[in-house]
Design brief:
nucleotidyltransferase; globular; 37% helix; seven-stranded mixed beta sheet; Barwin-like endoglucanases; 43 strands; alpha+beta
């Protein structure tokens, strides 16, 4: 500001003062303009309360209202304050720390992470605030003179010792006035109302090093590793405290465990599960939890029936896996859960307890997120990089990093293992397993590429049949690099395909009711990709291509074909936000999206009126697959109507009619001609821009040959050319040889032209990519834009000299493959910090929404290029440089970006009313209240049409056949109890966030959805996948209890025994439901309370 500017302001002062004297100050203070300005000021400087002391501890379960202080801040608290920011919904404790370089420490808590707030104050004493939290605070450090805030894992060394076990806060204030100020701030911020309570603080120093080592070493000497895992997990979760293990009850239990190790394993696991389920209750008993466990132990071990049931449960245990979650301050133990099958776990099946999954998460279980105000690099280096490089100790064993699957990397999950000795093959550690997985010597200079190749061994697969070297061969790819027409796809004979399918059906009998696939996604030796049935191949043959080969293997004479996916059912195509934005930009009118949405909502609303319509709706939305459909029709129709679209307003996930999601394969016709099997005149081949697709839902349904113009796309759709207008040829001619005539539930792409069609669709290939085929007339575009180019990108590369070791036997240096692992660990930590694909996608949508050029804005085109690079970040290790990302321009967001937690009264974000299709969809969905979808629903009488229809025939069958008493090990009540317990545990372990106060409902578990809000949709989707995997596994285990073998392998007596047990289970559940309905009629309890006592009905 120059001198003349100051002068102009100075000469205006008398006039300003004169105007102020004339003003009505009261009117000014109450004016909307002032209130708006004050609101802005209040958000920039949120209110605070001075803090005199900071302590961290835990609540003692054995003594009412007792708080054990385990750590207190030893530095000067001058200037410390408690800040409550309503706009960001955070509570922060800010402390100045005078060191060689002054700094500020922040303890940040989200409103949603606060379980309760208690105020303890007696006259004449220091007032205290107690924050009982659901997870630990996020810790940050800001060094004076810098604006960067760094995440840290502990405040000091003493805090580091206890941070994994205790995290509740006790803040000392100055006087009563501070309490009044705090209460006033809480009320204005709409924070939960604090409770006034007399709390007794105690200093027991429970979690010192000596106490922990003494406790753990005692466990390791007496108990199995599994039991130690459960106990330490409960201690780290806060379900139990060290004080609990100092009671007489624990002494009694610990003497029983060595005598009944298997029964104790089940009892302790179930008890801890129950503790976790009841953790949110307000009426927890103050007595030690271990006193309750003692009662469970003595009762179960003294009762012969209960012991028999425990032993049955032990026999039913399948392969399981435990999970470790590292947050910035804690290590959390979870499981066991049904183990996913992969090549490594199958090879070392008898040592499954030696393998463990490790997640890296923020304190609230969500993925780490980039924040322009906070630097995550240091915490990721410490809590991810160092743990990966150095491993960790757990229950007396040391675990070391092993590897990861590509999909797991995106979710920040990896595999660890503890070394073991195998009697037949000797010492087994991570280095040995990696070396035996394949020959990766060609990738040692590229850490990310090396890890991606190794990841093939950790892909979730099912075993099928083994193939000798004479039964497979290599064939040439079609097309030219880098856009091969056959990139990632090979062929198999019909006989081989049948053998694979028969083996899969043997492992999973439910597949017998599915269409026999004509294509499989496989892992075989060092190959990965898709193999499609070629009717021209005879005998047992498989043909693989060079584009499918990722690495060499040491032994290939006899190898197993692993099945990553079998394409027996056509997928449903769903609209999503990027696709809607792209289609609108390519000419699709906005009203067409609203028209489709109205139809979908109407179908959901009407679906409860008939069984057929409900089944169609469930299938369309891929819901209820773990348990089938018939069992849930009478109970869940209304619940489905409510929960069908929890994500529609935000993600616009709308099913599209006459459209499918199909895996892509290549037309092998040109290969027939090239190999001179037939002439060009004999073979029918697809021309450029032509496709073939045949759809068949069930073996009994007719095949649908897709014909006419349609859209073809592949996610992610960001470039205008990512949606292509193509022509589906329908049924191929009968008078010509056609390589794809028998293909079903796949989309066949042409193998001619200068560039593959797959590469035009977001850079796709044919190694398992799914393509969306849309024949909904309103969405078919009129023409094609130029497809995106995908030039080679730089790969993360290291100096191979760093991999050299000196061999004293030969006096030469050689490369040591294991020396690449530290570089892989660094890459994983950097990946978690630099994975910006989601951020880029959102920026693309925001710019396209606000720009007059829409998706053709130059910034959108640039972001589309960066998205293509970000997609392959996990394979090449080259991150997107954030400096290359164009600016948004408009800081306001479109209204459709409001998340599920949006609060108009406190949000710092500014929104405008979008005029794009996404805005219209959002406002339309927002106008649809729950009442418009809600039908009056009430528990009916005991009318059960399925039971009433089947009962006479089943009773007649069972009455006419003697000697079908069920064996004692298949008692119906024990089957139901085991099912109920495991379902209950799944409902608690798959909650969408660490702050969820309710477990999942039975309806959610059966339908395979999570209706609760979650700040990260990727996290919710991951939980849904885990929940579906676990419920599917539970269904399979329960089915085997009822029907132990395939029907074809059972005689009539065994079949009727299974029928009797299944029918008895149904009758038991039916009687329980009837009694619940009777209670409902007597006391008119809320429907939810009654439903929570229900159990799943078995139908076989």
């Amino acid at each position: 500001m120059n001198l003349s500017t100051y002068f102009r302001i100075f000469v205006q002062i008398p006039k300003i003062v004169d105007e102020l004297c004339k003003m009505d100050i009261i009117s000014l203070l109450t004016s909307p303009e002032y209130q708006r300005m004050f609101g802005m000021f209040s958000r920039q400087s949120p209110p605070s309360v001075a803090v005199k002391t900071l302590e961290i501890g835990t609540w003692l379960k054995s003594t009412p209202n007792s708080f054990a202080v385990e750590w207190d801040y030893q530095y000067d608290m001058n200037g410390a304050k408690l800040v409550i920011d309503r706009g960001r919904k955070t509570i922060e404790v800010c402390i100045r720390r005078q060191q060689s370089i002054p700094e500020e420490i922040r303890l940040s808590i989200n409103f949603s992470c606060v379980k309760s707030i208690k105020i303890g104050h007696e006259e004449g004493s220091t007032p205290y605030i107690y924050f009982e939290l659901l997870n630990a605070c996020a810790l940050e450090r800001t060094v004076d003179g810098t604006r960067s805030r760094q995440r840290i894992s502990s405040i000091d060394e003493n805090h580091k010792q206890i941070s994994s076990y205790v995290f509740h806060l006790r803040l000392g204030l100055g006087d009563v006035d501070d309490i009044k100020l705090f209460l006033n701030i809480c009320e204005k911020a709409k924070l939960q109302k604090p409770l006034k309570m007399l709390v007794t603080p105690v200093r027991l120093d429970l979690y010192n090093v000596v106490n922990l080592e003494t406790l753990f070493s005692g466990w390791y000497e007496q108990f199995s590793w599994s039991i130690c895992f459960y106990l330490e997990g409960a201690l780290r979760d806060g379900l139990l405290v060290i004080d609990d293990f100092q009671c007489e009850s624990w002494d009694n239990i610990s003497t029983l465990i060595p005598s009944y190790p298997d029964e104790a394993d089940i009892l302790i696991r179930n008890f801890i599960q129950d503790c976790r389920l009841n953790f949110w209750g307000d009426n927890l008993p103050h007595a030690s939890r271990l006193e309750e466990l003692g009662k469970v132990f003595t009762g179960a071990l003294a009762d012969d029936t209960q012991r028999a049931n425990l032993q049955l449960q032990i026999k039913r245990e399948g392969r399981t896996c435990r999970v470790i979650t590292f947050t910035p301050t804690r290590m959390l133990l979870d499981g066991p859960y049904p183990a996913q099958s992969n090549r490594i776990l199958r090879q070392w099946d008898q040592y499954s307890e030696c393998f463990i999954r490790v997640n890296f998460r923020d304190e609230n279980w969500l993925h780490y997120r980039q924040n322009r105000l906070v630097d995550n690099k240091s915490i990721l280096k410490e809590r991810v990089g160092d743990i990966l490089k150095n491993g960790f100790d757990l229950c007396g064993k040391h675990f070391e990093f092993l590897g990861y699957a590509s999909s797991s990397l995106r979710d920040h999950n990896v595999w660890f293992m503890t070394p073991f000795n195998d009697p037949d093959s000797g010492y087994v550690n991570a280095a040995r397993i990696r070396s035996e997985a394949g020959d990766f010597s060609g990738e040692l200079r590229y850490p990310a590429r090396y890890a991606a190749r190794l990841a093939q061994a950790f892909t979730t697969t099912n075993p099928s049949i083994r193939l000798r070297r004479s039964n497979w061969r290599m064939i040439e790819d079609l097309g030219t690099k880098p856009y091969l027409h056959t990139d990632g796809v090979g062929t198999i004979s019909r006989s081989l395909g049948s053998q694979i399918w028969n083996e899969l059906c043997r492992l999973n009998p439910r597949l017998q009711n599915r269409v026999s696939p004509t294509a499989y996604q496989i892992r075989f030796l060092g190959f990965k990709g898709v193999v499609a049935i070629d009717e021209d191949l005879e005998g047992i043959q498989m043909c693989l291509r060079e584009s499918m080969k990722k690495f060499d293997v040491h032994e290939d004479e006899n190898a197993e074909i692993e099945i990553a996916n079998s394409f027996h059912t056509p997928g449903t195509m769903f609209l999503n936000r990027p696709l809607i934005m792209l289609l609108e930009g390519l000419g699709v009118a906005k009203n067409h999206f609203i028209d489709l949405l109205e139809i979908e909502i109407s179908e959901v609303y009407e679906s409860h009126k008939s069984t057929d319509s409900l089944v169609r709706t469930l299938r369309k939305h891929t819901l209820g697959s773990p348990f089938g459909f018939v069992t849930i029709l009478s109970r869940l129709s209304k619940k489905y109507g409510l929960d069908i679209s929890p994500e529609n307003p935000v993600k616009c996930r709308i099913p599209v009619p006459n459209s499918w999601s199909l895996v892509g394969i290549a037309d092998e016709g040109p290969a027939y001609i090239e190999q001179k099997r037939y002439t060009g005149q004999e073979v029918f081949t697809l021309q450029e821009n032509q496709i073939y697709a045949c759809i068949q839902d069930r073996p009994s349904s007719e095949r649908i040959y897709v014909q006419g113009y349609c859209n073809l796309s592949r996610s992610p759709t960001v470039n205008p050319g990512d949606v292509r207008r193509v022509f589906a040829i329908g049924k191929p001619p009968d008078d010509m040889i056609c390589a794809f005539r028998s293909q079903v539930n796949v989309v066949v792409l042409p193998s001619i032209g200068s560039r593959s069609l797959a590469s035009c669709l977001s850079g796709g290939d044919l190694d398992g990519d799914k393509y969306d085929l849309c024949q909904h007339e309103d969405f078919i575009i009129s023409g094609n834009e130029h497809p995106a180019e995908f030039p080679p990108v730089d790969k993360l590369e290291i100096n191979t000299d760093e991999l050299l070791v000196f061999d004293s036997t030969t006096n030469t240096s050689r490369q040591e493959p294991e020396k690449i692992i530290p570089f892989v660990c660094d890459f994983i930590a950097e990946y978690i910090n630099s994975d910006v694909l989601g951020i880029l996608s959102n920026m693309h949508l925001r710019i396209a929404d606000s720009s007059k050029d829409g998706i053709f804005d130059s910034r959108c085109i640039k972001i589309a290029e960066l998205c293509n690079k970000a997609v392959d970040y996990g394979k090449n290790g080259s991150p997107v440089d954030i400096l290359d990302v164009p600016g948004l321009g408009n800081k306001e967001k479109p209204d459709w970006m409001k998340n599920e937690f949006y609060d108009p009264n406190s949000s710092l974000d500014k929104y405008y009313e979008s005029q794009r299709a996404l805005g219209e969809i959002f406002r339309y969905m927002d106008s649809q209240t729950e009442d418009s979808l809600r039908n009056n629903y009430r528990w009916g009488t005991t009318y059960d049409p399925i039971y009433d229809a089947l009962n006479p025939d089943i009773c007649e069958e069972l009455d006419n056949y003697d000697d079908i008493q069920s064996p004692t090990e298949r008692d119906p009540q024990s089957i139901i109890d085991a099912f109920r317990d495991k379902l209950k545990y799944i409902s608690a372990s798959c909650i969408p966030t660490s702050v969820s106060k309710e477990r999942l409902t039975e309806e959610e578990l059966i339908l395979g959805i999570i209706a609760a809000k979650c700040p990260q949709h990727r996290w919710r989707e991951e939980r849904i996948i885990r929940m579906r995997e676990r419920t599917m596994k539970l269904e399979e285990e329960t089915r085997r209890e009822l029907v132990p073998s395939r029907f074809s392998e059972m005689d009539l007596r065994d079949i009727k025994r299974s029928l009797k047990i299944a029918w008895e289970c149904w009758k038991v559940v039916k009687d329980e439901i009837a009694s619940l309905e009777y209670i409902y009629m007597l006391f008119e309890e809320d429907e939810k309370d009654v439903a929570e006592g229900s159990v799943m009905v078995f139908v076989y």
